[in-house]
Design goal:
Strand 4 and strand 5 form a beta hairpin. It is elongated, with a radius of gyration of 22 Å. By secondary structure, it is of the alpha+beta class. The protein is built from three helices and five strands, in the order H-H-E-E-E-H-E-E.
Length: 153
């Protein structure tokens, strides 16, 4: 994964552990002080939130345990691979688009980051500028021409 993606996960984990979890523990203690827990909505809602936060913490810890940060300076830009920034043209619409191929944990299409495991990401892997790529997506067959490949620094 990229250093940026790794840093985002570390920051979110820190937020969950130091801010969100203590806040929900306080909410549980406050709700517990109100008496009968069997009909205490605030208590049950806080316990559900605590479970969600603890689950998210475990997930991030697991991701970080197996994460490897890739040194982009050692990657070539002659073929599409992880952390490649790919500029391409949709042959049918003549519309240009640009995506960076990232790990599944960093994918965010609204930021122009698509997963290496997505249909488009899979189809682009190993391709070079000038190659034509056909991708089966839910909307049908997508024909793309790779215009250029670069690496985000």
């Amino acid at each position: 994964m990229s250093q940026e993606g790794y840093d985002k996960i570390v920051a979110e984990l820190r937020q969950l552990e130091t801010v969100d979890l203590p806040r929900v523990k306080d909410a549980i203690a406050e709700a517990r002080d109100k008496g009968d827990l069997s009909e205490n909505f605030e208590y049950h809602a806080a316990k559900r939130e605590q479970g969600r936060i603890l689950s998210r913490i475990r997930f991030h810890q697991r991701v970080l345990e197996f994460a490897r940060v890739i040194d982009t300076s050692r990657l070539s830009s002659d073929k599409v691979g992880l952390l490649s920034r790919v500029e391409m043209t949709n042959i049918a619409t003549d519309r240009q688009m640009c995506y960076t191929i990232v790990s599944t944990h960093e994918a965010n299409p609204s930021e122009g980051k698509i997963s290496i495991k997505s249909p488009i990401g899979q189809a682009l892997l190993g391709k070079k500028p000038g190659d034509l790529v056909e991708v089966h997506v839910p909307a049908g067959l997508l024909r793309l021409r790779i215009d250029s490949i670069s690496r985000d620094s």
